[in-house]
Amino acid sequence: MAARTSALRSLARACGAVRRIHSSRVLADQAKIRAPIADALKVRQPQAMSVPKDMAQFDDADMAILHNLGIETDAVIHNARPGTLYDEALRYEKGSAILSTGALAAYSGAKTGRSPMDKRVVEEDTTIDDVWWGTVNMGLSEKSFSINRERAIDYLNTRPRLYVLDGFAGWDPEYRYKIRVITSRAYHALFMHNMLIRPTEEELANFGEPDYTIYNAGAFPANRATDGMTSGTSVSLNFKAKEVVILGSQYAGEMKKGVFTIMNYLLPKQGILSMHASANEGQDGDVTVFFGLSGTGKTTLSADENRKLIGDDEHAWTDKGVFNIEGGCYAKAIGLTREKEPEIWDAIRFGALLENVVFDTRTGEVDYDDNSITENTRVSYPLEYIPNVKIPAVGGHPKNIIMLTCDAFGVLPPVSKLTPAQAMYHFISGYTAKVAGTEMGVSEPTATFSACFGAPFMVWHPAKYAELLAEKMAKHNVNAWLINTGWTGGAFGLGHRMSLKDTRAIIDAIHSGDLAKVEYENFPRFNLAVPKSCPNVDAKILMPNKTWLDQSEFERMSAKLSGLFKENFTKFQDGCSADIRAAAPQ
């Protein structure tokens, strides 16, 4: 028994030793596993950020272009292609997404449209006698501009990455200007890549110093205490320093219209007419220019499958002909359908930029009818995305000038032929109308007048642009037409909108020359020459009063609109000739 007990004890000791050896091995193995996990989870002190030399930071970026301006940012993405800017926006900018069509979605923040009341032009000795000072061009001291510029540079210096883009304004090499954009957002760089004319590799290599520089620090507000500031938003232009400073607005359209404002000063100074207008060219090289405010159909009507598009918004008219100022289009996207705007719809693909649209985050499908962010949803894309565009975007002298108005009073004819004096009068007036809204007490349309069909962007007195237009129209024997794309048979709420089919038929008749050959009659009070017939258009709609059931109501509305025209023109008449003043409605 004693021997058996001793043997069992020896066995127990051996088993215990085995268990201890096994346990120690398990603990050792567990320690090996736990060590890297613990190391990975260990809280480390943050280190200074280093920017990797990846595909988005180019070795050929010349840092001196920023250092000379006082900007010392580590990473500069210079003249990047859309693919790189997509990558940057998706990594660093909230609201960015690749949509189902391949376009990039971007969000501009609180500002979803331009801020015209926050635009300022610096009062300095080289231009103070040229600028049309007032509500359009509000003055700013050089000191306040310097404060804003310093504030913008200070903000840009806090950003880990900046985007620099170089491009041209103006397709005619003789009159083009070099523009440099410095911004903290890839979205802005892609937008200006689309909207400026893109230089070739050789042109970029020899770009040199820009003619104008835009500092876009729109994510940082202006200091309201700065003299001349009325809000946290400021878009200030200094012609002497050749700089634009943007604070407090990330809406990309501020850059586009900043460049247009620059061109609206520089070109007329050389005897060149800058125009807020679209233009297209027929198969025989005949050019038509379309002036018109928002909602008049300027973009829609200039897009014609039988004519090449030169551009949809900004042009210049030289002694050689017309040229587009821009390298892209910036179209409204609200309510967009392929049926209504096939060319714009098809342009929404890789490289295009959709601004402030609502989309399904799972499918990337855009709801173009959703205005919950803004009514002013937009799409930016290069000119080349339009199938029948003309590149280079230049043309000869216009044969026809069409001034578009959306008359919601239902008074103006669908088409009328203008005398030279009437053309100047309606050009300076820049009339269209807004329809009645949903506010209590608003029951009639509201007239809108914007001199030269683009007052917010004009720098000189409107008479300067009108004189240039008159001179060029006379020299090249250009026909002028006023086309109403608004209401007929009654004002808004009673009548109905002119059909796009009829308006296109009228424009086709202008282009064919057929409308110039028909008989005309006078439209009372406005003294406009109205055709008695037009191919493919019902003659009954051509004289407005004949489409109204209540003639007394038509007379009342006609007198009202006439009075609005005359009241608006009082601020321009001192700078206009007697024949232009005589072209006013009676």
From TrEMBL:
Pathway: Carbohydrate biosynthesis; gluconeogenesis. Its EC number is 4.1.1.49. It holds the Pfam family PEPCK_ATP. Signal peptide: none annotated. InterPro entries: PEP_carboxykinase_ATP, PEP_carboxykinase_C, PEP_carboxykinase_N, PEPCK_ATP_CS. It catalyses: oxaloacetate + ATP = phosphoenolpyruvate + ADP + CO2. Keywords: ATP-binding, Decarboxylase, Gluconeogenesis, Lyase, Nucleotide-binding. The keyword NADP does not apply. It comes from the Eukaryota. The keyword Cytoplasm does not apply. Belongs to the phosphoenolpyruvate carboxykinase (ATP) family. NCBIfam families: pckA, PRK09344.1-2, PRK09344.1-3. This is phosphoenolpyruvate carboxykinase (ATP).
